[in-house]
Amino acid sequence: MPTSISWREQDLTRDAFLGGRLQLWQPKSGHRIGHDGMLLAAACDASPGDSVSDFGAGNGGAGIAIASRLPDIDLTLVDIEPSLLDLARLNLEDANVRSAKVIECDLTASAKDREATGLLPNVADHIVLNPPFYTEGTVRPSLDLIKRRSHVSSPDTLERWLKAAAHHVKANGTLTLIHRAEALVDVLNAAKGRFGNLAILPLQPYRGAPAHRIIVAGRAGSKERLRLLPPLALHETKGGEQTEAVAALLRDGEALPLVV
């Protein structure tokens, strides 16, 4: 492991994803990628040669998972946390991603300030987005600053992130995001006038349970109506085995395209 990054090796774990084909460095505590990031990656409707940008990339897990499925994409990882982007660079190197760049950027900043970091308009075919899940005042904030910034946001953060996504994506490009199920109205409001033809996939922790996550995908500028898809259960029963469909995504690396 290179010593030039801003982490001590004893503060990190190297975890296996996609049936062991992908190994990712991440903090032992704080902001860590898990099933959410891998499911988000599976839902990105990219093709070989496309440009894909991962907003809120953290250690790069979701974007790198897409590149492991499609080695010929042009990948951009975007985050505000320099220490997490250090891990993203390390993970890109370990995964031998062919074409990638890393951008340190505050996605809530003005278009001018975002462009100054290299996040240019109308360049991405696809954007995947894993925004902070919670709004200030609704949860007890973590004492870990990086985890707090990754999980807790101001009331207008989601709106500003989707505004940045609409600025960065090409005409007819796609956006795919994952969020808490309770945030569906906020997602729809933030997407309004920016992304249409939305496909909403509820994720159940186990069969018959209420959805706890949603994956939402759509096209820039589309006027098509939204579609509510049948739910996807992660496990057969509470605490039980993964469903066959989810195992194909998380273990075998299969794609889960939602946009038409």
Structure description:
The protein is α/β, with parallel strands linked by helices. Helices cover 28% and strands 28% of the residues. The chain has helices at 35-43, 61-69, 82-95, 111-116, 145-151, 157-168, 184-191, 244-250, and strands at residues 12-17, 22-27, 51-55, 74-79, 100-104, 124-129, 134-135, 152-153, 169-180, 195-204, 213-220, 227-228, 232-233. Strands 3, 4, 5, 6, 9, 10, 11, 12 and 13 form a nine-stranded mixed beta sheet that branches. Strands 1-2 form a two-stranded antiparallel ribbon. Strands 7-8 form a two-stranded parallel ribbon. Helix 2 (61-69) links the parallel strand 3 and strand 4 (74-79). Helix 1 packs across helix 2 and helix 6 (157-168) crosses helix 7. The chain is globular. The N and C termini lie far apart (42 Å).
| Total strands | 13
Mean pLDDT across all amino acids: 91
Helix content: 25-40%
* Proportion of beta-strand residues: 25-35%
- How many helices? The count is 8
Order of helices and strands: EEHEHEHEHEEHEHEHEEEEH
Which class of secondary structure composition applies to the elements?
alpha/beta
Largest sheet: 9 strands, mixed
Low-confidence stretches: none
Distance between the termini: 42 Å
Radius of gyration: 17 Å
Secondary structure blueprint with pairings:
Blueprint (H helix, E strand, L loop, with lengths): L11 E6 L4 E6 L7 H9 L7 E5 L5 H9 L4 E6 L2 H14 L4 E5 L6 H6 L7 E6 L4 E2 L9 H7 E2 L3 H12 E12 L3 H8 L3 E10 L8 E8 L6 E2 L3 E2 L10 H7 L10
Parallel strand pairs: 3-4, 3-6, 4-5, 6-9, 7-8, 10-12, 10-13
Antiparallel strand pairs: 1-2, 9-11, 10-11
Helix pairs in contact: 1-2, 6-7
